[in-house]
Structures are given as C-alpha cells and as structure tokens.
Amino acid sequence: MAGCSTFVRLPHNPPHFNLSPPPFLNPDFSFRGSNTVHNHRPNWPKPLSLRSKSALAGTYPLEMPDWNRTALLVIDMQKDFIEDGGPMLVKGGKEIVPNVIKAVEVARQRGILVVWVVREHDPLGRDVELFRRHLYTEGKVGPTSEGSEGAELVDGLVIKEGDYKLVKTRFSAFFATHLHSVLQGAGIKSLVVTGVQTPNCIRQTVYDAVALDYQPVTVIVDATAAATPDIHLANLSDMKNIGVATPTLQEWSEPKA
C-alpha cells in the first residue's frame, strides 16, 4: 500500500553463527611464519640504571644562546618537596639542591631572568587537584599551603630583586597562570629548567614550552630530579626526543655555552 512502510520478515531459522573464541585466544596457539614462532616473551630493555646514560649525550649548545632572551625556571624547590619528612617528598630532590643553587648563580652572572615557580595552595585545598584534596582538612596544614613553612624555598635558595615569583596550582607552570604573558613581555625566547619533579611538573612545563615555540628549551639533567634515577632518565629521554637540550650543569655553565 502506498505510503506504508515495508517490513522484511526474518527467517524462522536464522543461520548459525560460530561464537567460539578465535584460535589466537587459545593459550596453546602460536602465530607461525615460515621459520619463526612468535609466541616468545618480548625483549624488554634493561632498567635504565643498568644502561649507559649516553642516550642523553650530545653536543651542547647547538648554537650560542642569547642570554638576554633566556629565562631560568626553578620549579617547586620547596621544603615540602625537598626536606626529609616532607609530605610531598621527592627522594632525589635533596641531592640536586647544590646544583640548583649553582645554576641560579650562573644565570644571574649571565643576566638571565630567574623565575621561581612554586606551588602555594589555599589552606582548605579549594584550588588543589581533586585527587589531593583529602590532604587538606580543617585543622590540618596541607602541603605547600600558602603561608606555611613547607611552602618556603629550601635553605640556600633566595629570591632577589629582579627575579620573578610565579605561583601555580597544577603541574605545568603555564597552566592557568600568566607565565607566558610575562615571558613574552620580557622578550624571552628560550628556557632553562631546573627543579622537581621530572615526570610531573618538569615534564608538563617543558612540553607546554615546546608547544608554545620556546626555542631552545633546556633541562639541566643534574639540577632536576625524580623519585628514582630510572624515572628521571626515562622522562629526560622522552624530552630529548622532542628536541629538548639535556646538558649537565657543568656543560651548561661552561663559558662557551
């Protein structure tokens, strides 16, 4: 009938579908080529601590940096992250304090803008990540709460006239802050990064810097740290693979650099 829908009658005995699992889900099954059985365990690399650090080696610098257009970011070198017993302790942090102090000294000698990137949170944790808010309860001082001793820089690191202090509440120093605006206003084109910790605040800040076309972006490998050497080196390797320079403090501090 015109204007009516057409219905298709399904057969009373639909074809039988084989719903048994495919053969490759059988634990005894192996993919076989002409001469090779591919069911062996993958050949995972040895832990980074057992391998050479040569993956981070390279000629530094690739070109002479313009120090007047460079900023040094010192990230999260605060007591709650660095000192023994700190609630957010980064195990490798204490070891790099002398190198961070030295990096700041060299930066000031070169006329590099020093930017102190710190976490400072509302005492009730209203601006902290959701997964950390349980650390901020009434009557308890949460990590790096504004005005707390744990939010202070570790001994030996001092903000001086001409430096810039930036407060962040997330991993990246660029996220929901005015860092990019400040750097652009100062004519900054390249960044040098120190501090903690490599897989979190260092990495996310560096990736954002690369996305924003700062060039070059440099991470001083022995003035940054993570919970373990393997974590540190793995993340440095990832950053090197996107064009980030990874010199040691000595390499970066040399007069020719």
From TrEMBL:
Residues 70-246 form the Isochorismatase-like domain. It holds the Pfam family Isochorismatase. Gene3D superfamilies: Isochorismatase-like. It comes from the Eukaryota. Belongs to the isochorismatase family. This is Isochorismatase family protein rutB. The lineage of its organism: Eukaryota, Viridiplantae, Streptophyta, Embryophyta, Tracheophyta.
